[in-house]
Amino acid sequence: MCADRRIEAITDRIRERSYRAREAYLARILAKGEAGPKRSTLGCGNLAHGFAACGPEDKARLKDGITPNLGIITAYNDMLSAHQPFERYPELIRQTARDVGATAQVAGGVPAMCDGVTQGEAGMELSLFSRDVIAMAAAVGLSHDMFDAAVYLGVCDKIVPGLVIGALTFGHLPAIFVPAGPMTTGLPNDEKARTRQLYAEGKVGRDVLLEAESASYHGPGTCTFYGTANSNQMLMEIMGLHMPGASFINPNTPLRDALTREATKRALAITALGNEYTPAGMVVDERAVVNGVVGLHATGGSTNHTMHLVAMAAAAGISLTWQDISDLSEIVPLLARVYPNGLADVNHFHAAGGMGFLIRELLDAGLLHEDVRTVFGTGLRAYASEALMGPQGQGVTRIPAPAVSHDSRILATMDSPFAANGGLRMLSGNLGHAVIKTSAVKPENRIVEAPARVFHAQEEVQRAFRAGELTGDFVAVVRFQGPRANGMPELHKLTPTLGVLQDRGQKVALVTDGRMSGASGKVPAAIHVTPEAHDGGLISRIHDGDLVRLNAETGEISLLVDADILAARAPANVDSTPHEFGMGRELFALFRQAVGPANLGASVFNQNGQTPQHR
Question: Which cofactors must be present for this protein to function (predicted)?
Fold first, then answer.
């Protein structure tokens, strides 16, 4: 139970709305869990294929079929700093499994693309769809039905949500998510942002910009700002899918390896072969989903999760809506200031008390469900702790989270929060529905009522800026960027440009059916506008000069044009051909046709018995 009745009421309405789909989901996974893996009943030829490459010890155990076999789903590649540390995890996991009399096999790999590399490039149009590809790739790996549990190695933007969808599709299997941790602190994020703005203004050259970027992104591990990747890690911990304290330990350290070994042993302990069977589909219930949303608000997390959490919940038969997310935002205060919501990075957040402190504060205030199932085998209170190396450097030990924040500028208490409500807000009006991240936007910039300047690509905005055409107050409307139009790329390259204009004293805002990065910053941005322009949403009828109102305080996004005038206008139309070919985009035509709207998770899957509705 939650002490806060408002949280309970929202959880209850999610439970009631989801009842039929959730019951059908649980029936499916429980039936499969009772049947167990087919490893012990496979034909001899099938089973021999499954362990042909194993060593004698592993092969003997797999032949017997009475010891657990752990599947590893990995997002390793050595181009991504966040995923490069996973190169050595499989052998660490296999050896740990052998040490406890079990086996582990890499069941499959999933793609892992970096939005940081593809920002503003054609490849970004595959980014959102990669989430659903990752879910399908995980399913392919697990479809051999050789496994009693699985561990998932992934960190970044679409990777963790895709892995969660895959894990919940195989919800009869226990699932533990194993992170790689953030890179050590490099160039401060505010200094990097300042250099980006100077470059946008033409005041420094590419050599200076590249040096700043290289000093910021400088080694193995996750980028240290609080974008989608680190929001993912927060979610996995607060939803009970990590080991306690695992999220923000740096790569290639003794504690990082100890936590990986601990996760391996725990995954093997919670299979149906033992007495603590903990299927993933039972861990992720309505309470865990609400806990995830609460954590997102309390930390000022990524806007991308207004889609990802909806899609993740749907994979477990749970119907989460933008209204649920918005209502929770009004209840949960902002307790963390991590860039772009402050100057600190996630290493500073962890040093200030990190996840253990945050969870303890929220639990004590009654804002989290404590009585949840977790992979650790207890309720959520066990996560109000700090992980340390055990005695003589062996294993992991835990101590209670610090009683006070080690830096109140980064991590606040419930008694003195940074803001009364969460960092994400839903907007609505005649333009439809949208999302805004307010935690990094100063109060004086949260209301913009100004003429529209309409663009069909972020490059058009940048060209207009370089030509000196973006004068006065205005709302940049960047449309035909939704999931059906071109895969809904992030428009993060607009941040420095619009930031320069705001710093000059202009009132500026962004309205788009596309996405911004999880690092959405100081410029007010109404994103994920639904219905999107491609489907004839009102955003497709905006003309240059139309008055647009964005009010993040009241939650309004409106086009201030007479309804009769709008009804007489034909929706704009753009040539989609440039978005249909090159960089693999032709392979994703079916995704663009099948994808649902942003408020239903921008998913290609028919989940919860719902067919994606485009209008």
Answer: [4Fe-4S] cluster
CB 70 within 8 A of CB 97: yes
The SS3 of residue 233 is: helix
Kindly give, in sequence order, each residue whose CB lies less than 8 Å from that of residue 34, ignoring residues fewer than 6 positions away.
none
Q: At what angle do helices 127-142 and 159-169 cross, to 10 degrees?
A: 40
Closest CA to 98 of 258, 265, 256: 265
CA distances from 243 to 11, 287, 375, 385 (A): 24, 18, 7, 11
SS3 sequence of 550-607: EECCCCEEEECCCHHHHHHCCCCCCCCHHHCCCCCHHHHHHHHHHCCCHHHCCCCCCC
Task: Please state, as a whole number, how many other Cβ atoms lie within 10 Å of the Cβ of residue 179.
Answer: 32
For the whole prediction, is pTM greater than 0.90? yes
In angstroms, rounded to a whole number, what is the distance separating the alpha carbons of residues 279 and 282? Answer: 6
Q: Which CATH number fits domain 424-578: 3.40.50.300, 3.50.50.60, 2.60.40.10, 3.50.30.80?
A: 3.50.30.80
**Per residue in 115-170, pLDDT tens?**
888 888 888 999 999 999 999 999 999 999 999 999 999 999 999 999 999 999 99
For residue 398, what are the β-bridge partners? 387
Q: What is the number of H-type helices and E-type strands within the chain? A: 22, 14
Q: How many Cα atoms are found within 13 Å in the side-chain-facing hemisphere of 558?
A: 12
Q: Report the share of the chain in percent with pLDDT over 70.
A: 98
C-alpha to C-alpha distance for 386 and 353, rounded to whole angstroms: 8
Alpha helices (H) in 127-248, listed in sequence order: 127-142, 159-169, 189-200, 206-216, 228-238
The end-to-end CA distance of the chain, in Å, is 38
CB distance 149 to 175 below 8 Å: yes
Tokens of 607: 């989940």
Mark residue 430 as left, alpha or beta (left: phi above 0; alpha: psi -120 to 50; beta: remaining).
Answer: alpha
223 is in an annotated binding site: yes
Closest CA to 292 of 380, 413, 183: 380
Across the range 459-474, mean pLDDT stands at: 95
| Residue 54 among known ligand-binding residues | no
Per-domain boundaries in the chain: 5-118+126-184+219-391, 424-578
